[in-house]
């Protein structure tokens, strides 16, 4: 792991991740890693309330992983900590750079009048020639299946198309990690599948982009290489997608049994 490319939060005496969760990943390179991440907020009465409790996770480079769990379990907070938008109270994080955080609401993503201008928006800081900008924009739009929309005014796009343009903007900046916060919440079923497929195929094109996708939709797991399942501020499980799917279904079934028996 290239430590110069890592974001380092408060460093403490961090024990290794639970090896039983990680045996099949041991030889892989990780693009995202969190160890014993805690995040607490202070109430107006001065009391600290824990939101994230000792969360540890590792996401292999080049893969699409999902972060799942019931409402309010801390998924978005963990993603924001990994994005650097919130500082952990305790623990260590690494996220390969450049990284990009994409918001839930598609209307908060796109800022320029046309698709082309929007995808090019973040490239101003790189001192590129016009030709280089055009080429990066074209490649990024191609990888999310939006090449035909280059000159389209953004206000004529659907929610899912706006999300794909936002992802193209991140890819154009050669970002290595995409942190995606419930992108499909406001989308219809077609757009929902379109955005997941676009993310999946963009990872395939570059080979070295990693995505962590927060969702509460179990059906989206079929597109994932792996997943992290949270409950009540804790990472409960960290595994391949089908193991997580089985675990959540079992959990749901025992909850239904419990409801029926009480
Ligand atoms: N600044 C804050 N002050 C107080 N409580 C907070 C704050 N930020 C988050 N929380 C609480 O922390 C918990 C986790 O919130 P978070 O948004 O991370 O959950 P989530 O799993 O993403 O939920 P959802 O699936 O509903 O979007 C919630 O109970 C939330 O109310």
TrEMBL record:
It comes from the Eukaryota. GO terms for molecular function: ATP binding; ATP hydrolysis activity. Keywords: ATP-binding, Nucleotide-binding, Transport. Residues 32-257 form the ABC transporter domain. GO terms for cellular component: membrane. Pfam families: ABC_tran. GO terms for biological process: transmembrane transport. This is ABC transporter domain-containing protein.
């Amino acid at each position: 792991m290239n430590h110069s490319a890592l974001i380092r939060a408060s460093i403490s005496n961090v024990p290794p991740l639970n090896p039983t969760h990680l045996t099949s990943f041991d030889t892989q390179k990780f693009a995202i890693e969190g160890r014993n991440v805690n995040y607490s907020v202070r109430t107006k009465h001065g009391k600290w309330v824990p939101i994230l409790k000792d969360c540890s996770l590792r996401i292999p480079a080049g893969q699409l992983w999902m972060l799942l769990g019931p409402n309010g379990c801390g998924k978005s907070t963990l993603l924001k900590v990994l994005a650097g938008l919130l500082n952990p109270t305790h623990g260590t994080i690494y996220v390969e750079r450049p990284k990009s955080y994409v918001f839930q609401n598609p209307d908060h993503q796109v800022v320029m009048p046309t698709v082309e201008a929007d995808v090019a928006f973040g490239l101003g800081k790189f001192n590129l020639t016009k030709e280089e900008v055009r080429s990066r924009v074209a490649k990024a739009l191609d990888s999310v299946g939006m090449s035909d929309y280059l000159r389209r005014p953004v206000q004529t796009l659907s929610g899912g198309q706006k999300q794909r343009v936002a992802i193209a903007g991140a890819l154009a900046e050669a970002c290595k990690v995409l942190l995606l916060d419930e992108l499909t919440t406001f989308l219809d079923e077609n757009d929902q599948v379109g955005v997941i497929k676009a993310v999946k195929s963009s990872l395939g094109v570059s080979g070295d982009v990693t995505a962590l996708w927060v969702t509460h939709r179990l059906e989206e797991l079929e597109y994932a290489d792996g997943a992290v399942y949270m409950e009540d501020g804790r990472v409960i499980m960290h595994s391949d997608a089908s193991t997580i799917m089985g675990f959540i279904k079992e959990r749901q079934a025992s909850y239904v049994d419990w409801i029926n028996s009480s």
